[in-house]
């Protein structure tokens, strides 16, 4: 059985996820671990559950989602995968981090790029790559069809959607992504977002004010 666990890290209250199954294989999604305490918390969970990290994944590359990239990559010596169109976003983090008072450890380069429609396999788990730009230029989501959950990054939130006022953001593109890529999923698919609590596709279809204006 594939499971997902959430850690809320860094001053932006970003949600970092570990997805794992009965084989012990796991992936780390959007590691925002910034402080030593946060790094220790992540590693302690992995060690306690005898997990074997296989991939480091980014849904997108805003600073709050990549603060722990270098730490995770260095600690576990695993491939880093991200969508290609996020490279320009990742490259800019090192330039603006100091102005935000952040001690950013530069992320490694991606070993390869994620492509929509790709099935990313580890252990007995398959994650489908769904392209959902709008919050950032080439944002992707990770969908586990078998267990009916999606790691949605900063696309869809409980009662809200991702902001579009950052470079590369576009409100109309984001709404199109949500309606044509996420809202086509079953109502009972659980949504694990990059911030705040989880929700479901059905709840947001019915109650999200941005989708029912």
Describe the protein in words:
There is one protein chain. This protein is an alpha/beta fold and 213 residues long. It is 25% helix and 30% strand. It is built from six helices and 14 strands. The protein has helices at residues 36-48, 63-66, 69-76, 87-96, 171-182, 201-207; strands at 3-9, 14-20, 25-29, 52-57, 80-83, 112-114, 119-122, 125-131, 140-144, 149-153, 156-157, 160-161, 190-193, 199-200. The strands form three sheets. Strands 1-2-3-4-5-6 form a six-stranded mixed sheet, covered by helices on one side. A six-stranded mixed sheet has the order 7-8-9-10-13-14. β5 (80-83), α4 (87-96) and β6 (112-114) form a beta-alpha-beta unit. The N and C termini lie far apart (38 Å).
Measured by DSSP, the beta-strand proportion falls in 25-35%
> From N to C, what is the helix and strand string?
EEEHEHHEHEEEEEEEHEEH
Percentage of residues assigned to helices = 25-40%
> Could you tell me the number of beta strands?
14
Quickly give the structural class.
Answer: alpha/beta
Gyration radius, in Å:
16 Å
Give the neighbour order of strands across the main sheet. Answer: 1-2-3-4-5-6
User: What's the rounded overall pLDDT mean?
Assistant: 97
Taking the sheet with the most strands, its summary is: 6 strands, mixed
> What would the principal axes of the Cα set say about the shape?
globular
Distance between the termini: 38 Å
| Spans where pLDDT lies below 50 across 5 or more residues | none
User: How many distinct helices?
Assistant: 6
